Amino acid sequence: MDIRIIPNFKMDTEMISLIQKEQERQRCQLRLIPSENYASREVLSAVGSVLMNKYSEGQAFRRYYQGNFIIDQIEALVKKRALKAFGLDSDKWGVNVQAVAGSIANLAVYLGLLKPGDKLLSLYLYEGGHLSHGWRLPSGKAVSFTAAFFQTSYYHVDLQTQLLDYEAVEKRALEERPAMIITGGTSYPREIDYGKMRRIADEVGALYLADIAHEAGLVAAGVNQSPFPYAHVVTMTTRKTLRGPVGALIFARREFIDRINQAVFPGLQGGPQNHSIAGIGVALHEAMRPEFKEYAVGVVANAQKLAKGLMSKGYEIVSGGTDKHLMVVDLRNKGIGGKEAALALEKANIIVNKQAVPGETSRFWAPSGIRLGTPALTSRGMREKEMEQVALFIDEALRNYQNVAVLRRIGREVRDFAFQFPAPGISG
Ligand code: DSN
Questions:
Q1: Looking at ligand 1, which residue's alpha carbon is closest to its atom 4?
Q2: Domain 50-287 belongs to what topology?
Q3: Fewer CB near the last or first residue (10 Å), C or N of the chain?
Q4: If DSSP codes are grouped into helix, strand and coil, which group holds residue 211?
Q5: Are 97 and 77 in contact (CB under 8 A)?
Q6: Which CATH superfamily is domain 298-418 in?
Q7: What is the mean pLDDT of the chain?
Q8: Does the beta carbon of 224 lie inside 6 Å of ligand 1?
Q9: Residue with CA nearest ligand 1 atom 3
Q10: pLDDT at residue 1 above 50?
Q11: Averaged over 405-420, what is the pLDDT?
Q12: Is residue 3's pLDDT more than 50?
């Protein structure tokens, strides 16, 4: 297969062979990790372009180095598209497009708006939060730098319903008196009541950060609720449901954006990744087309269908379903660990990740569940009918998780199945 986006890359046969193998893997496997997707050929072209040859520290039209006339126009265009994609008024909101990843975006928010030692309140990691929201091990050891520089505290889901209990969140906020309340993360499968979270933040005098890294594309398409009417700051990554490159966007109300810009550069980063910023711009352009709305509707319908298919086979889905693109399967009733399940599924060409579950009773590296999502499969044109088949593949593989011969046979069937659906950026 040709790597058309980098046509001069023909001499390093060792590297080109590895890239081709990864392309092939992405084409022949069912990729169910909810934070992954397929970027379009146009996004890949922007990211693989000469824009990465330029240094451009500073903000658009206010750079430290010369030669940024074109880069300035690119960054200004991406900012304009970012505000438009989320329906925001530029008099009220600013956006920073330079953070290289979601964790850095969140750190920039804390460094820009808080003082070291201030307290954060966020969702407990095992119930769907994120490392960059200030995770400490139960022993108290800080795992991320966020926890080293800021005090952290957590709110929880209700262990019966596995849903956020807003009264409990309010109680926790009143006890902890945080400087910032954070929502979002990596695996909470339900809509969040952003209005309630803002009211709780106001009650304790906290700022409210909504991290919508996972559901950014669903929010842009209007398929999931928007936090923008309520949050002071919204962060997101761009390579998940938004189908862009690695990168992040930080939206902040006008009074906060300058401090956040300063925290990104010179606070945390040097020259911005202009190629990724352009790729984000292309992805935002795609996300404003009517087909993207259809895509986002499909992502959620597929996730709901897949959850239903698995539940009909006796799998426990955390919170009983999903409002989004992802679900967490608690495997404790099946007598198989999340790690064994993920390794067995990989042998069958089905790629998921092991995942802690609410009320986790096992170790973090060998948790009790797996996490599945539909953004990548939906990008390949799979719909609800195909989700029935995907649920059958998963169930058969998990029932035979110790039988390598059966897993290999399922793997061949999965490969034939996957090949029927073009992979954007590779075969589409
Ligand atoms: N790695 C991302 C995810 O899979 O959700 C979060 O950083």
A1: 35
A2: Aspartate Aminotransferase; domain 2 (3.40.640)
A3: N
A4: strand
A5: no
A6: Aspartate Aminotransferase, domain 1 (3.90.1150.10)
A7: 96
A8: no
A9: 35
A10: no
A11: 98
A12: no
